[in-house]
Amino acid sequence: MRIGDAAAAAGTTPRALRFYEQRGLLPPAVRSASGQREYGPEAVTRVRVVRALLALGLTVDDLASRTHRLDLLAEDPPRSCASDGDFGPDTFAPVVERRLAALDAEIARLARLREALARHTGAEAGSDLPGR
């Protein structure tokens, strides 16, 4: 199928498919005689996996570091991305742990920011803003 059809089937845009291909998240598409990209169902499935992982908060760089593991998640049913149950440096485990730590740090930063704003405005006691 051509890029527009593949993008629609995966729930994204042709531009996103080209970007994923450029970043190595999607293998280079086979080209037709006229030079147009042609995608098979396995590419659509892989793009769906990529989009699901991005929606979970992983980044393109996170996924690019583990592209060799993406096809395991594209299988039906998905297989573990760990090698025989190990969680070594080649698996998604370190990537997920780093992303979770970054999320925890951002949540803590936002909680501190909220507390500071609430103290400044008196919102923690339910009062009006100062100067009213």
UniProtKB/TrEMBL annotation:
What InterPro entries does the entry give? DNA-bd_dom_put_sf (IPR009061), MerR-type_HTH_dom (IPR000551), MerR_fam (IPR047057)
Enumerate the spans annotated as HTH merR-type domain: 1-69
Residues folding into a coiled coil are none
Q: Does the keyword Cytoplasm apply?
A: no
Q: Does the record bear DNA-binding in its keywords? A: yes
Which Pfam families does the record associate with it? MerR_1
Domain of life, per lineage: Bacteria
Give the protein name, as stated in the record.
MerR family transcriptional regulator
Species name? Kitasatospora purpeofusca
* Taxonomic lineage from the root: Bacteria, Bacillati, Actinomycetota, Actinomycetes, Kitasatosporales
